[in-house]
Each structure stands twice: as structure tokens, then as C-alpha cells.
Amino acid sequence: MNERHEFQYHGSLNIYDGSNLIQTYDSWRCSKCGIIRICVRRPGKIESEFLEDPSSSDERWIILVCKAEKPKVEIYSIKPGEIIRHECVGGRIIEFKADENLEVKGDENHYLYRFEDVLNGFIDVSENPPKVVVPKRS
């Protein structure tokens, strides 16, 4: 079945390194199936980069902040039980497994957040652990 999506703007997440904006993740949600489409914007770039849409509505976006060296931010679309494979400093591959609630535990250099939990807020990667600010939801 080839479903036609009807996307509506959903919100954004800003990533800062101190007072410098590194990137913004804009999101759109399909009003039919709930899939979230993500676009990455970087300061000074005219073009935005749309990421590949999740293949099913049970996939969710996870933000990974790597602080092993210079702060690095990545985003992954995963299902419960799937593994995130992150290439860290020196090409070392580190794996993080999502539980049934899409909670993913990091380590002393890696912090993982469900996109929906930090939506419309910001993450400051200059702090350790990264500072997460999200407006209160009613």
C-alpha cells in the first residue's frame, strides 16, 4: 500500500555549542499515520537537508550527543529493540540498544534523547552533561 502523507509542521529543536547555534532539526508530522519527517538546517547554509522518512509509524527519532572529543550531534530513526551504531573517535563503533519504550542508555561520553521529549526546546552541547531546556507542556 502506497500511502499518501499529509504533513503539518510539528516543531523544532535547536542545538547550541554555548552561544553558537550549530543546527536546527525541523519536524513535520503526518496527520494520517503519525510519521515524523525531519529536516536539518545549519547556520550559513541556504539548503535544508531532509532525512529519510521512517518506514513505519512505530519508528521514532533519537538524538545522540557524542562528547568523546569535539561535541558531535546525530539523529537516528529507530524502532523498539533496534540498535544504534555510532562511529566514535578513531572509527570505533559503539552500539546503543533501544528498549520497548525507546529509552536508550548512553555512557560517560554519549547522551541520547527521544526527539519528542526535547521538541521545541534546545540542547547546549558545551555543558557536561549537555544542558536540555524544553518548555513546559500542559
Question: What's the structural blueprint in terms of helices and strands?
Answer:
Layout: E1 7-17, E2 20-30, E3 36-41, E4 49-50, E5 60-66, E6 72-78, E7 83-87, E8 93-97, E9 110-114, H1 115-118, E10 122-124, E11 131-133
Parallel strand pairs: 1-10
Antiparallel strand pairs: 1-2, 2-3, 3-4, 5-6, 5-9, 7-8, 10-11
Description of the structure:
It is built from 1 helix and 11 strands; from the N terminus they run E-E-E-E-E-E-E-E-E-H-E-E. The chain has one helix at 115-118, and strands at 7-17, 20-30, 36-41, 49-50, 60-66, 72-78, 83-87, 93-97, 110-114, 122-124, 131-133. The strands form 3 sheets. A 6-stranded mixed beta sheet has the order 4-3-2-1-10-11, with no helix packed on it. A hairpin with a 6-residue loop joins strand 10 and strand 11. The longest helix has 4 residues, at 115-118. The mean pLDDT is 93.
